[in-house]
Specification:
Number of helices: 5
Region (Disordered): 86-106
Distance between the termini: 40 Å
Transmembrane segments: 116-132, 138-157
Keywords: Membrane, Transmembrane, Transmembrane helix
Structural class: alpha+beta
CATH class of the largest domain: Alpha Beta
Strand content: 15-25%
Order of helices and strands: EEHEEHHHH
Protein name: Copper chaperone
Helix content: 40-55%
Oligomer: single chain
CATH topology of the largest domain: Gyrase A, domain 2
CATH architecture of the largest domain: 2-Layer Sandwich
Biased composition (Basic residues): 90-106
């Protein structure tokens, strides 16, 4: 079975195990070149994929996707997975049932750590630069906040730091 794995206006990637055979992939490439509005076809037998670039202004992208899958079905004699009703630009960003995938907790913690580092760095620099009376406390507190956020960030990326 072949399916569309990536699609943006003007570019489409089709992948399937049937595309690993060099002879069938070359036949598919030849037939895809014959389609209207196709600009370029690149095939990769090792990856089992074909990338089709087309003029997205001249072609209605959705009908061209189906046309490419039908050509692949005729040439290779295999079935294809119909494109999902989710918009092409959103394909791959949604999990099962159409809900958005949640980020891992370590990535959420790292995002917050980077925000705290940026905010505290601004305060540390401002309080250290202007040196108004009574701001020493805020300079110290935000310096420690920066240090704590940096520790979280380094913990999340510890494997990359110690290579």
């Amino acid at each position: 079975m072949i399916s569309i794995v990536a699609s943006i206006p003007g570019r489409l990637r089709v992948r399937g195990d049937e595309l690993r055979a060099p002879g069938s992939l070359q036949r598919l490439q030849h037939h895809l070149w014959e389609l209207d509005d196709v600009i370029d076809v690149r095939v990769n037998s090792k990856a089992g994929s074909a990338v089709v670039r087309y003029d997205h202004q001249a072609a209605a992208g959705r009908s061209l996707e189906l046309e490419i899958l039908k050509v692949a079905e005729q040439v290779l004699g295999v079935s294809y997975a119909a494109p999902s009703p989710v918009k092409s630009a959103q394909r791959g960003k949604r999990g099962a049932g159409g809900s958005r995938k949640s980020r891992p907790a370590r990535m959420v913690a790292n995002r917050h750590a980077k925000q705290v580092m940026l905010g505290s760095l601004v305060v540390v620099l401002a309080t250290g630069l202007f040196r108004y009376p009574g701001w020493r406390y805020w300079h110290t507190v935000t310096g420690w906040a920066f240090f704590a956020a940096l520790a979280v960030h380094m913990y999340v990326y510890r494997r990359h730091l110690l290579r």
